[in-house]
TrEMBL record:
Protein known as: 3-phosphoglycerate dehydrogenase
Domain D-isomer specific 2-hydroxyacid dehydrogenase catalytic: start-end pairs: 36-306
SUPFAM superfamilies linked: Formate/glycerate dehydrogenase catalytic domain-like, NAD(P)-binding Rossmann-fold domains
GO molecular function, one term: oxidoreductase activity, acting on the CH-OH group of donors, NAD or NADP as acceptor
Key words, A-Z: Oxidoreductase
UniProt keyword Oxidoreductase, yes or no: yes
Family to which the UniProt record says this protein belongs: Belongs to the D-isomer specific 2-hydroxyacid dehydrogenase family.
Native organism taxonomy: Bacteria, Pseudomonadati, Bacteroidota, Bacteroidia, Bacteroidales
Domain of life: Bacteria
Organism expressing this protein natively: Candidatus Rikenella faecigallinarum
Occurrences of domain D-isomer specific 2-hydroxyacid dehydrogenase NAD-binding (ranges): 125-253
């Protein structure tokens, strides 16, 4: 059996060594394809792979068609919008993610981004404090819950909305206000931290109306996915409301225009770095390897996302 780790954005060496050790102990081979420049390289590398570990790498129907032996693909991370689940299912390939393994890293970045914007992107001048401000968490999953906890520790007033978390006890337990609707959340958030996945329902769902409903001086923080933003609506909102700010960890399609038009009210990281910590690399990478071994040896499908 051969496990291929195909990561355009490489894991730390500690993580790849750990994955290789897990494979070796199971009696499997492990191959590494990092920083590849074309889909052809990926297609060639998966040709003899039984299992595949990826990060945000796109596992398309074309890639799957090039992997005749593939039995399992694990997205070492949370969001699996980069996997063609229908193509996996059609071939009987199990697709998994590693939920929670990199959440803390992303949550820390979300908090850092709020402070960075509150302090004028660390340039001279009077900034503000996030303590005492209202923090809205859009989607209360693994990352959202940690951001809520850190926000509270920093003295923020925290509210959240998640269409799939409807039990008020979940929010009460964490001392978080449950917003009645997404509109109510945006209306009352000085900082809005996005944690929704990119799905057909959420794509382009954050735009002009929600943004312009936010309070004076509000900041939208996106450590989720670029696809959930309606970029034309965002640009219109930022142009009309010169007090609004947007910071993102996922390079927008229109980054150059946003940067030119809105200066310090906009910031993007050049390459998604939310999960780029040594700890998150090890947690997610090793979890993926362990899930593969548990599946291939014992048929464990606990984190399967294409059931
Ligand atoms: C995730 O969904 O887990 C994050 O977006 C991290 O993505 P990455 O592995 O490409 O850094």
């Amino acid at each position: 059996m051969k496990i291929l780790v195909a990561t355009e954005k490489p894991f730390s060496r500690q993580a790849t060594d750990g994955i290789a050790a897990i494979a070796r102990e199971a009696g499997y081979d492990c191959a590494l394809l990092e920083k590849y420049a074309s889909v052809d390289e990926l297609k060639a590398a998966v040709a003899d792979a039984d299992a595949l570990i990826v990060r945000s790498d796109k596992v398309t129907a074309e890639v799957i068609a090039s992997a005749p032996k593939l039995k399992i693909v694990v997205r070492a991370g949370a969001g699996y919008d980069n996997l063609d689940l229908a193509a996996c299912t059609a071939r009987g390939i199990v697709a998994m993610n590693t939920p929670g393994q990199n959440s803390n890293a992303v949550a820390e970045l979300a908090i850092a981004m709020m402070i960075f914007m509150a302090r004028n992107q660390f340039t001279p001048g009077t900034g503000s404090e996030i303590s005492g401000k209202r923090l809205g968490i859009h989607a209360y999953g693994n990352v959202g819950r940690i951001v809520a906890r850190y926000g509270k520790a920093l003295g923020m007033e925290v509210a959240a909305y998640d269409p799939f978390v409807t039990d008020p006890a979940v929010f009460e337990r964490d001392g978080v206000k449950m917003a009645a609707s997404v509109e109510e959340l945006y209306r009352n958030s000085d900082y809005l931290s996005l944690h929704i996945p990119a799905t057909p329902e959420t794509k382009g769902s954050i735009g002009y109306d929600l943004l312009t409903s936010m309070p004076q001086g509000a900041t939208l923080v996106n450590t989720a996915r670029k696809e959930v933003i309606d970029e034309a609506g965002l640009a219109r909102a930022l142009a009309e409301r010169t007090d609004l700010k947007y910071i993102t960890d996922i390079l927008p399609d229109t980054a150059a225009q946003l940067s030119e038009q809105f200066g310090k009210r906009f910031f993007t990281t050049p390459k998604k770095m939310g999960a780029e910590t040594a700890e998150a690399n090890v947690n997610a990478g090793l979890a993926a390897a362990r899930q593969i071994v548990a599946f291939l040896k014992e048929g464990v499908t606990k984190f399967q996302v294409n059931k």
